[in-house]
């Protein structure tokens, strides 16, 4: 069944939200809290080890009701069935979207065009497990009989960001293997990484779903050339493995068929870390932890699939994002993890969210007349507080922010953890409350400032407040909770795409740049600039004159 194709702005709920917005837009969060003693209870969800508090958002009961009515009117429930059921919901590429099938237990059956895909998924998992165990234990050896010490993941986009983000997030759980990520076609990236490596003990994992991506093929070729400067060509098969759905291209590149970990066209690149694309995760933290990651994601999938919209975390988060994007006209959202381990999460989510929902044509093929994809950015707290929080507190733009924190730290240094979390709670409170004129006067008076100085400083020290935040408080950063967290965002992407009536699982917009780059590269190689606009022409001439 295809996804419904309802223009959200034609729904009753959208109209009602528009007039409701006029009523609520100037209400201060502080007043919303004053009016409802039970607000924190009313607008929060406790699910397993997740506590999601969305009460510091500019909503009331009516807002929530209308947002959920909108989800119902665009038939989100039907869309969820089609998605999990393996329908071809990525219509422009004629593919199912089934990364969720990668994390179901073996006993499940998921069919694509009448064929259960789970046995195949399980056999690849077995291959990942067997290979990871051998590399970690040292029983698999390099060409001179030494155990591997370093793993190099070569890939880009979803073939890099997912494994890199998870590997860094789970650094606490990692084993002795050093894992490196090479993605950029900037030669300095690959050469800088190769510089410190020993070819006898380095294993390359070349990850590319299509095995046609310029960056990845260039980096893999450079790595192979570096390797064969030290070892024979025959030794390549012991040191290079590939993850891809394009077997002919991999074998043409010179990687033996038994060294290929397959994936399927129903796994989108930016949702692929749960497949063999996550091989470097499994190598870094062991297969059991990789499996726990999948288990956590599966539990969140089940929550999403089976929970009523009223208490459904991805649905609520997705609809809140729509509330700010389409009614408050907020352009961006900040994601602030209060964990240094999660420092790559915002970058990972930038691809997930922006490559999926950065679309301007609806599922009927018509241009959309409303805003879609939000701009995502962020950095870990508390560092972010000392960088860009000023703009969130006192700038002119409304930036809804999501705070992700953990009750327990991994090294159990309670002194640091309490300081970190004190900041975590303080920021959402400060963003909500701001600081009134009376409070500033009181503060400055207590500092015994002259009346003149006080008057001068007053306007700069007032914070309007009323800045919305959502808090996701999780017990502890574990492979399982991380899996659930990432799935929470994946499902939120789906919710927003369905409501906006766009196709979230293609990415045609990145193709044009790729095509032009190929054309320009030929011109550079031939030192001959063809017809361009005068700016590009001059820039190219300038580059070639070096
Ligand atoms: O940037 C476009 C894109 O197709 C992403 O969606 C994908 O994750 C990335 O390129 C890498 O693609 P591949 O795994 O085929 O090399």
UniProtKB/TrEMBL annotation:
Predominant location: cytoplasm
Gene Ontology BP terms: gluconeogenesis; glucose 6-phosphate metabolic process; glycolytic process
GO molecular function: carbohydrate derivative binding; glucose-6-phosphate isomerase activity; monosaccharide binding
Active-site residues, record numbering mapped to chain: 355 (proton donor), 386, 514
Top EC class for this record: isomerase
Claim: Cytoplasm is one of the keywords in the record: yes
Pathway per the UniProt entry: Carbohydrate biosynthesis; gluconeogenesis; Carbohydrate degradation; glycolysis; D-glyceraldehyde 3-phosphate and glycerone phosphate from D-glucose: step 2/4
Gene3D superfamilies membership: 1.10.1390.10, Glucose-6-phosphate isomerase like protein, domain 1
Annotated localization: Cytoplasm
Catalytic activity: alpha-D-glucose 6-phosphate = beta-D-fructose 6-phosphate
Record's keyword terms, sorted: Cytoplasm, Gluconeogenesis, Glycolysis, Isomerase
Cross-referenced InterPro entries: G6P_Isomerase, G6P_Isomerase_C, Phosphoglucose_isomerase_CS, SIS_dom_sf, SIS_PGI_1, SIS_PGI_2
Domain of life: Bacteria
GO CC aspect terms: cytosol
Transmembrane segments: none
The protein's Enzyme Commission number: 5.3.1.9
Pfam family, one: PGI
Family the entry assigns: Belongs to the GPI family.
Role played: Catalyzes the reversible isomerization of glucose-6-phosphate to fructose-6-phosphate.
Name the record gives this protein: Glucose-6-phosphate isomerase
Species annotation: Aquimarina mytili
Organismal lineage: Bacteria, Pseudomonadati, Bacteroidota, Flavobacteriia, Flavobacteriales
């Amino acid at each position: 069944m295809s996804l419904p194709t309802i223009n959200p702005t034609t729904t009753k709920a959208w109209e009602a939200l528009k007039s409701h917005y006029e009523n609520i837009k100037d209400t201060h969060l502080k007043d919303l809290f004053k009016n409802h003693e039970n607000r924190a209870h009313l607008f929060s969800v406790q699910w397993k080890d997740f506590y999601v508090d969305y009460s510091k958002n500019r909503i009331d009961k009516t807002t929530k009701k209308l947002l959920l009515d909108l989800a119902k009117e665009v038939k989100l429930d039907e869309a969820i069935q089609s998605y999990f059921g393996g329908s071809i919901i990525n219509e422009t590429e004629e593919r199912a979207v089934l990364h969720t099938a990668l994390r179901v237990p073996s006993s499940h059956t998921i069919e694509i065009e009448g064929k259960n895909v789970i046995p195949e998924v399980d056999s690849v998992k077995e291959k990942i497990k067997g290979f990871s165990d051998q590399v970690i234990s040292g029983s698999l050896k390099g060409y001179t009989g030494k155990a591997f010490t370093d793993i190099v993941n070569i890939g880009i986009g979803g073939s890099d960001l997912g494994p890199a983000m998870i590997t860094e997030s789970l650094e606490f759980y990692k084993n002795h293997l050093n894992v490196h990520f090479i993605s950029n076609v900037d030669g300095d990236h690959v050469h800088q990484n190769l510089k410190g490596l020993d070819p006898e003990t380095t294993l390359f994992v070349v990850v590319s779903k299509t095995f046609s991506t310029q960056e990845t093929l260039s980096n893999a070729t450079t790595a192979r050339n570096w390797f064969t400067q030290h070892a024979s060509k025959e030794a390549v098969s012991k040191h290079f493995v590939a993850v891809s759905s394009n077997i002919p291209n991999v074998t043409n590149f010179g990687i033996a068929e038994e060294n290929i970990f397959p994936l399927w066209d129903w796994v989108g690149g930016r949702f692929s870390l749960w497949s063999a694309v996550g091989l470097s995760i499994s190598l870094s933290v062991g297969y059991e932890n990789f499996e726990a990651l999948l288990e956590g994601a599966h539990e969140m999938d089940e929550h999403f699939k089976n929970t009523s919209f009223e208490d459904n975390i991805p649905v609520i988060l997705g609809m809140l994002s729509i509330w700010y994007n389409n009614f408050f006209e907020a352009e961006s959202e900040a994601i602030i993890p209060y964990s240094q381990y999660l420092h790559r999460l915002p970058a990972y989510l930038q691809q997930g969210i922006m490559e999926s929902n950065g679309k301007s044509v609806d599922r009927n093929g018509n241009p959309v007349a409303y805003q879609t994809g939000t701009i995502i950015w962020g950095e870990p707290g508390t560092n972010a507080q000392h960088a860009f929080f000023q703009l969130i507190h006192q700038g002119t733009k409304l930036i809804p922010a999501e705070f992700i924190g953990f009750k327990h730290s991994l090294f159990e240094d309670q002194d640091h953890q309490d300081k970190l979390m004190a900041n975590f709670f303080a920021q959402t409170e400060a963003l909500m409350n701001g600081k009134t004129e009376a409070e500033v006067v009181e503060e400055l008076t207590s500092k015994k400032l002259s009346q003149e100085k006080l008057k001068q400083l007053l306007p700069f020290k007032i914070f309007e407040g009323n800045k919305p935040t959502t808090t996701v408080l999780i017990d502890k950063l574990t492979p399982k909770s991380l899996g659930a967290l990432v799935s929470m965002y994946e499902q939120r992407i789906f919710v927003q795409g369905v409501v906006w009536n766009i196709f979230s699982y293609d990415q045609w917009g990145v193709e044009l740049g790729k095509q032009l780059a190929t054309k320009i590269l030929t011109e550079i190689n031939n030192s001959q600039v063809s017809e361009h606009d005068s700016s590009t022409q001059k820039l190219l001439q300038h580059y070639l004159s070096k």
